[in-house]
Amino acid sequence: xxxxxIIAEYNPFHNxxxxxxxxxxxxxxxxxxxIAMSGNFLQRGEPACLDKWTRANQxxxxxxxxxxxxxxxxxxxxxxxxxxxxxxxxxxxxxxxLFFGAEHAEYDFMTYAKLVKEAHGDFKKYDESYAxxxxxxxTTKIGHExxxxxxxxxxxxxxxxxxxxxPLTFHPIQRKQAGYHEVTLGKGTIASASAIRKNYxxxxxxxxxxxxxxxxxxLRQKELLSWDDFFPYLKYKxxxxxxxxxxxxxxxAEGIEYxxxxxxxxxxxxxxxxxxxxxxxxxRFTYTRxxxxxxxxxxxxxxxEVLAYEKVPYLRLLGFTPTGQNILNKAKKSNPHPLVTKVSxxxxxxxxxxxxxxxxxxxxxxxxxxxxxxxxxxxx
Length: 380
What we know:
Elements: E1 4-8, H1 15-27, E2 33-38, H2 52-60, E3 66-70, H3 72-75, H4 79-92, E4 97-102, H5 109-115, H6 130-142, H7 149-163, E5 169-174, H8 193-198, H9 204-207, H10 213-221, H11 227-240, H12 243-246, H13 256-266, H14 273-280, H15 287-299, H16 303-311, E6 315-320, H17 322-334, E7 339-340, H18 345-348, H19 353-366, E8 377-378
Parallel strand pairs: 1-2, 1-4, 2-3, 4-5, 6-7, 6-8
Antiparallel strand pairs: 3-6
Helix pairs in contact: 4-7, 5-7, 11-15
């Protein structure tokens, strides 16, 4: 049985995402679609603009049949580790075909993955980031740069697929109109998620041509969240934590904890997240890596918690359609990983503790319970 899959964040769901789903339906008519989606904190190290339930519903209203949440330990990660969890999760749910956007859909990502399988950046070069070093390594192996955000993520998916003996068939989809980092609204009907978030304060009517009806309704009723909403909590964590405590946080390395704490202490009361991020930036640490570290500090994400997830991966079911119910019934017989449908008191104190904590921190600004007593969304 063919099952299509997408690894996504939907921050928020817009017409570019709808176009992608339509391309899936065109390529594989009548094939169910499973989405593995980041929760309330995202791969590039930022809070989601809308909570996971709202974004899952947006996907279900626009063609998805199952939406599962990738746990925090899988999401706030470099591309390779994020991709590994996404591919592993979709394969466990019976997905056979992976669709993803790419700046260069003509690339043979699986062939590239084989070429760069043993490629590594140079950790010893302290005048550049590991990401820049790795980029040089893959350029040498492939013969040209693979440097655009979605192309790099596609390569990461391919490397993960190769590591799992290639359970998924790849379908790159050419990105339309808006670039990943584009922050202006164009004349067409597709704008980047970055542009939609940046222009949100102009009013939802300004965004109407770029987003489906469900997203439009959500924007009329909800405030979009960003790092600025959570920065006071991050500031408190850094100011109140000792260096020794910071050293237990996942991703902390090379003594960066001293700089993170010192620069926070030096900030004026009026400074925001971007100001602090620029203050702590070094050649060795990219802005994205620092943003992920900030998320890990905010959530008190410990190395031991991430290792525990890697040892026993799991997923959280956010919603499904009647077609999705059939997929879930089949997955019960073959899925090797736990699929959480409701979070119990016992869960939140054990394997689900990090995700529960992340939900509670997000709830400080969102004002809506994220885990306890929340049942999956059912679309009839």
